[in-house]
Design goal:
Elements lengths: L10 H5 L1 H18 L12 H16 L11 H5 L6 H17 L4 H14 L7
């Protein structure tokens, strides 16, 4: 008897795996740092560490990849940052732009955005 075949590809697989996700996250943070509406949140932040952390988060938790995410929960990680709803929308748009740059299919971008909207109450501090 053989094991059942995986019938549904994860977003991790569809986007292209770890290297593709790392490229998207790097592009996303470049956009965030270049945008005056949100870049103040990154003053004094070790961006390389944050980038690595986000790659693990997206691979392990958000996109169904093989890594397990063991970091803080979203509410704790964003506590005290005072992220506004408007800034969160900017971040979603910038991530969508990065995903489009790397030719992620629109239906998959919509799934990533739906996930981000589902966790929004855990991130907005204002």
């Amino acid at each position: 008897m053989s094991l059942p075949q995986r019938t549904k590809e994860s977003l991790y697989d569809k986007i292209g795996g770890e290297q593709a996700i790392a490229a998207v996250i790097s592009d996303f943070y470049h956009r965030m740092l270049s945008d005056e509406r949100v870049n103040h949140h990154f003053i004094g932040i070790n961006m390389e560490s944050l980038r690595r952390h986000q790659i693990t988060f997206f691979i392990g938790f958000a996109l169904g990849g093989p890594r397990k995410y063991n970091g803080n929960n979203l509410r704790t990680a964003h506590s005290g940052l005072n992220v506004t709803a408007e800034e969160y929308e900017v971040a979603i748009k910038l991530l969508n732009q990065a995903l489009r740059k790397y030719n992620v299919e629109i239906e998959d971008i919509a799934k990533v955005e739906a996930f981000l909207r589902s966790v929004k109450p855990h991130i907005i501090n204002k």
